[in-house]
Amino acid sequence: MMIKMLEPVSKTDQAIELWNKGLWVQAFAIFSTFKLGFTKEQRELLKICHEMNAGNTAFYERLGYSHDAVLTDAEQIIRSVYSKQLTK
Predict the structure, then answer these.
(1) Most CB atoms closer than 10 Å: which of 26, 27, 41, 84?
(2) What secondary structure letter does DSSP report for 80?
(3) pTM across the whole model
(4) Is residue 71 within 8 Å of 51, Cβ to Cβ?
């Protein structure tokens, strides 16, 4: 009997697969943990987007963030970095 070895799947691959399936909330949860490939400001915005999508919207709105604006900006960040790998 032959055992097939599976290739490890990177966090980047997982996040892109979720994004391409339209599961943006789950994809942002992974992207928000990345330390490389984003500026400090971009990482902060991705984290805020994830936090807002995880149920902390009211907290961030009290701090002056708009959920729609954060979501739009976070989407633009992901599209600018991973444009060649995204299908949606």
Answers:
(1) 27
(2) H
(3) 0.82
(4) no
- CA pair distance 63, 79, nearest whole angstrom: 26
Return the structure tokens found at 5.
């070895």
Residue 14's pLDDT is: 93
Distance, in Å, from the CA atom of 67 to the CA atom of 60, rounded to the nearest integer, reads 8
pLDDT computed for residue 4 by the predictor: 62
Dihedral sign for Cα 56, 62, 67, 71, please.
negative
Residues of the chain with pLDDT under 50: none
Longest dimension (CA), the chain: 60
Q: What is the pLDDT at residue 8? A: 59
